[in-house]
C-alpha cells in the first residue's frame, strides 16, 4: 500500500473511499499546516515548470492558486484582502505584463 505523507485536497479521502479503498488521515495543527502548504506550493511550482503544454500549465497554475487561497486564510486574510495587497503593489511598482527584463543599473 502506498504511503504519501503529504497535504491533499479536502475531498481526496472521500474520492479514495468511493473506489473501495481505505485511507488513513490526520488533521494538522496550524504551524504544520502552513509548512505543508508551502511544501505543496513548491511541488506544484515544479509541476508547472515541467508542464508540456498550456492546458497542463493552467492546471498547475490553478493548483497553485488554490494553495495561495489557503495560505492567505492561514495568515488571517481572505483572498480578496490578499488581492488588495497585490493591487496596491501593482499601483506602486507595476505588474509584470510589460515583459521588462532589467539588465543593469549604472550609478553615475
Structure commentary:
This protein is mainly alpha-helical. The chain has a domain at 29-93. It has helices at 12-18, 30-49, 54-74, 79-93. Helix 2 runs antiparallel to helix 3. The model has no long low-confidence stretch (mean pLDDT 96). InterPro entries: MSMEG_1276-like_NTP-PPase_dom. GO terms for molecular function: hydrolase activity. Residues 31-68 form a coiled coil. It comes from Alkalihalobacillus trypoxylicola.
Q: How many helices?
A: 4
User: Based on helices, strands and strand pairing, what is the structural class?
Assistant: mainly alpha
Which H/E pattern describes the elements? HHHH
Oligomeric category: single chain
Which percent range fits the helix content?
55-70%
Record field, number of beta strands: 0
Question: What characteristic shape results from the CA principal axes?
Answer: elongated
Unreliable stretches (pLDDT < 50, length at least 5) are none
What percentage of the residues does DSSP assign to strands (E)?
under 5%
Determine Rg (CA atoms, Å).
19 Å
| Rounded mean pLDDT score | 96
**Distance, first to last CA:** 65 Å
What does the largest sheet look like? none
Organism: Alkalihalobacillus trypoxylicola
Protein name: Phosphoribosyl-ATP pyrophosphohydrolase
InterPro entries: MSMEG_1276-like_NTP-PPase_dom
Keywords: Coiled coil, Hydrolase
Amino acid at each position: 500500500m502506498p504511503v504519501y505523507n503529504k497535504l491533499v485536497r479536502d475531498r481526496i479521502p472521500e474520492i479514495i473511499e468511493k473506489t473501495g479503498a481505505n485511507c488513513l488521515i490526520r488533521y494538522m495543527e496550524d504551524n504544520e499546516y502552513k509548512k505543508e502548504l508551502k511544501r505543496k506550493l513548491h511541488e506544484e511550482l515544479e509541476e508547472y515548470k515541467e508542464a508540456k503544454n498550456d492546458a497542463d500549465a493552467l492546471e498547475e497554475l490553478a493548483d497553485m492558486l488554490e494553495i495561495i487561497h489557503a495560505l492567505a486564510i492561514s495568515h488571517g486574510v481572505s483572498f480578496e484582502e490578499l488581492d488588495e495587497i497585490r493591487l496596491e503593489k501593482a499601483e506602486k511598482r507595476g505588474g509584470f505584463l510589460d515583459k521588462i527584463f532589467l539588465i543593469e543599473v549604472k550609478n553615475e
